[in-house]
Amino acid sequence: MQMHNDYIMRHIQMIGLGIAQVVGLEQVVHEVEDPYRNEATNELYKILMEMLADGKINDAENLLFAAFENKEIAEQDTTSLAFDFYLKVNSYNDDYLALCDFSRAEADVGWADITKLCQIGGL
């Protein structure tokens, strides 16, 4: 099962990198480089990472979608946050996801929904 999960993780990373190039992102993983630049993005990122650390994956995903749909931060920033979020979620093992009342299938649906919101065709 671990080998299958590793394959899926590599596949998701490759898709993420490809999408990043299509939408003009320099990187898929969000990094807080300048605390004064993109303050709303940095704050959302910190909150999402705290929620993931606390095992509140469903709540974090809901917050991410709300920020995207309400256009609270720049779309490109939200896109990189979304890709980073799902890469992190997919790095968790199935036992941890189950403990957090989340599944890989939910992550797949969220990933697909984000790509639709980003208007990236073919995914």
List the uncertain runs.
Answer: none
Question: What's the main sheet like?
Answer: none
Record field, number of beta strands: 0
Structural class: mainly alpha
Return Rg in Å.
14 Å
Distance between the termini: 25 Å
Oligomeric state, counting identical vs distinct chains: single chain
Q: Total helix count?
A: 6
Q: Percentage of helical residues? A: over 70%
Structure at a glance:
The protein has 123 residues and is mainly α. It has helices spanning 2-23, 39-53, 57-69, 75-91, 94-99, 104-117.
Task: Please name the defining characteristics of this protein.
123 residues; mainly alpha; 0% strand
Folded structure, characterized:
The protein is mainly alpha-helical. It has one domain (2-24, 38-117). 71% of the residues lie in helices and 0% in strands. The protein has six helices and no strands. The protein has helices spanning 2-23, 39-53, 57-69, 75-91, 94-99, 104-117. Helix 2 runs parallel beside helix 4 (75-91). The radius of gyration is 14 Å and the shape is globular. 27% of the residues are buried.
Write the layout of secondary structure elements.
Blueprint: H1 2-23, H2 39-53, H3 57-69, H4 75-91, H5 94-99, H6 104-117
Helix pairs in contact: 1-4, 2-3, 2-4, 3-4, 4-6
